[in-house]
Amino acid sequence: MAHWDGLVDTLLAGYRRGIFPMAEGRNDPELHWVEPKLRGVLPLDGFHISRSLAKTIRRGDYRVTVNSAFAQVVAACADREETWINAPLTRLYAALHARGHAQSLEVWQGDRLAGGVFGVSFGHTFCGETMFSRMRDGSKVALAYLVDRLRRSGFILFDTQFLTPHLASLGGVEIPQATYLELLAHAREGQADFGAGRVPSPQELMQRMTQTS
User: Fold this and answer.
1) Element (H, E) at 121
2) How does strand 157-161 pair with strand 125-133?
3) Where are the alpha helices (DSSP H) in the chain?
4) If you count Cβ atoms within 10 Å of the first and of the last residue's Cβ in the chain, which end, N or C, has fewer?
5) Domain 2-212 has CATH 3.40.630.70
């Protein structure tokens, strides 16, 4: 147990230094540290909601929860042909979640988990790991509610690690790793509360997003 606690401490220390772990694949037992030259971030005041996403959010045929199905979200994110999430990393994320340093946001349609996102949090930093979707715009809806929660909970840095076309369409940008480390030095201090506050209605979410976009 002490050895495992040490691994969890090492993992969190790595994030605080600006590096993060990945596996080569689902069946690879090893983890390696990644420090990209260019870092993806999503400015919390720059989230972009397209017309189609706004329509999906306003339709409201879903419900959103926070930290109610963390293990299910991680499993759903890993449930694809190619994944960097292996068994050791799944266990480490679960341990971080138990300590309050890993969070999930879930999108449901009835009793079906239809979308979600999870990440590692510390200080005023949220490191988004990955997301999944089983409904139209499911991961985008999850990100919209996540950005709103991060804003209202006192977070100042939303690290997406890499910039994908999907994230770029939502307002994500790329910055040099050196610039990221400067932002991180400030954002890793203190403590924001991811769990604070209720989940807003679709109307409340859109009103806040419209005011800050």
Assistant:
1) strand 112-122
2) parallel
3) 2-17, 51-59, 70-78, 87-98, 138-153, 165-168, 177-187, 202-212
4) N
5) yes
pLDDT at 213 over 70: no
Nearest to 159 by CA among 201, 200, 114, 117: 117
- Inform me whether the pLDDT recorded for 134 exceeds 60: yes
Instruction: Give the whole-angstrom CA distance, residue 93 versus residue 67.
Output: 13
**Residue 1 scores a pLDDT above 70:** no
Using alpha carbons, select from 46, 26, 13 the residue that is nearest to residue 160. 46
What is the 3-state composition of the chain as percent helix, strand, coil, each rounded to the nearest 5? 40, 25, 35
Calpha distance 131→15 (Å, rounded): 19
Give mean pLDDT, residues 93-98: 96
